[in-house]
């Protein structure tokens, strides 16, 4: 009954946002770099922010987390409506990141890890945001990650938070995981979700002292990082919109549907998580298995990228 009431509250909030978005034309219109063809409501991912605020009200999320997610949610929503200058966005992201790291540091001394965590969390947030480009990919990947986190004893104290955010994902998925999406997550959705997942990941790594849990982000990580590497090698501006991620090539060049690619990313990541959790094991740091995994993942990625669009794989900028 408790979760049903939460579901209803978040569903009503989502529908209310859609009404407001239509009234004030918060619409994503397609352009030459878009993977969609019809105007679609932007910012539906605000329901992720509302889930964290609700979790704080119910006492299952801390105030630094709730405030941090609220801040990035507000600035991202404003940016979704009318693009902001980089300074206010970066300033708010740094402040929110500081709040999340402050929360994680309670009861422990992070010391020299603080600047590293700032870099990792900001980097992950931007990578996750870059990967939000086709129907279903963000919310399905988030659901897989949340489901995995829910299974871990190290995050037992965050299970209620994970469930509430998961419910918000299911609600948004109904409007996004379809051939013609009714709504996109927008920056408010992708950035807030990135920070939620990044927060849980950092807590997990510090509690367990096992960095290989980062492999739970491996598919997003390799597609985003390798795409940045390739674009830099071609002396491209990595901050300009583009359609050169592997998932974009698979959709736009090879003609696979949005949903088939999004589901593939989610299922493959789920399989990787299961292999690491129940096959290899996470009780100890498995260095050999980690090296083998990376040694397989990178060549497979480049093979798929060459398959998807051979002309774009040349790393020689000349």
Overview of the molecule:
One of its GO terms (molecular function) is phosphotransferase activity, for other substituted phosphate groups. It holds the Pfam family Glycos_transf_4. This is Undecaprenyl-phosphate N-acetylglucosaminyl 1-phosphate transferase. The chain has 318 residues and is mainly alpha-helical. The chain is 67% helix and 1% strand. The protein is built from 12 helices and 2 strands; from the N terminus they run αββααααααααααα. A two-stranded antiparallel ribbon has the order 1-2. α3 packs antiparallel against α4 and α6 packs parallel to α11. The longest helix has 23 residues.
Topology:
Layout: H1 2-23, E1 27-28, E2 40-41, H2 46-57, H3 63-81, H4 86-104, H5 113-130, H6 137-150, H7 159-176, H8 186-208, H9 218-233, H10 246-252, H11 258-280, H12 287-308
Antiparallel strand pairs: 1-2
Please describe the structure with a list of short key phrases separated by commas or semicolons.
magnesium, single chain, disordered C terminus, 318 residues, mainly alpha, transmembrane, EC 2.7.8.-, Undecaprenyl-phosphate N-acetylglucosaminyl 1-phosphate transferase, 2 strands
């Amino acid at each position: 009954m408790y979760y049903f009431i939460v579901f209803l509250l978040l569903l009503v909030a989502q529908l209310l946002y859609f009404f407001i978005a239509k009234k004030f034309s918060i619409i994503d219109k397609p352009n030459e770099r878009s993977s969609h063809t019809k105007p679609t409501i932007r910012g539906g991912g605000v329901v992720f922010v509302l889930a964290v605020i609700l979790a704080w009200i119910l006492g299952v999320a801390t105030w630094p987390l709730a405030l941090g997610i609220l801040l990035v949610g507000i600035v991202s929503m404003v940016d979704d409506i009318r693009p902001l200058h980089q300074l206010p966005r970066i300033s708010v992201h740094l402040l929110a990141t500081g709040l999340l790291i402050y929360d994680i540091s309670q009861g422990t001394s992070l010391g020299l890890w603080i600047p590293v965590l700032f870099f990792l969390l900001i980097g992950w947030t931007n990578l996750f945001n870059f990967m939000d480009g086709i129907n279903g990919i963000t919310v399905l990947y988030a659901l897989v990650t949340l489901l995995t986190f829910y299974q871990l004893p190290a995050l037992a104290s965050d299970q209620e938070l994970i469930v509430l955010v998961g419910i918000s994902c299911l609600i948004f998925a109904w409007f996004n995981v379809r051939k013609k999406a009714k709504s996109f997550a927008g920056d408010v959705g992708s950035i807030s979700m990135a920070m939620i997942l990044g927060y849980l990941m950092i807590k997990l790594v510090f509690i367990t002292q096992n960095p290989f849990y980062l492999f739970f982000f491996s598919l997003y990580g390799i597609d985003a990082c390798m795409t940045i590497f390739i674009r830099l090698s071609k002396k491209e501006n990595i901050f300009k919109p583009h359609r050169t991620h592997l998932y974009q090539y698979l959709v736009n060049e090879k003609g696979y549907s949005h949903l088939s690619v999004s589901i593939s990313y989610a299922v493959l990541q789920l399989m990787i998580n299961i292999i690491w959790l129940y096959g290899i094991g996470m009780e100890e740091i498995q260095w050999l298995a980690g090296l083998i995994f990376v040694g397989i993942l990178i060549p497979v990625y480049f093979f798929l990228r060459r398959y998807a669009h051979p002309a774009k794989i040349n790393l020689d900028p000349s």
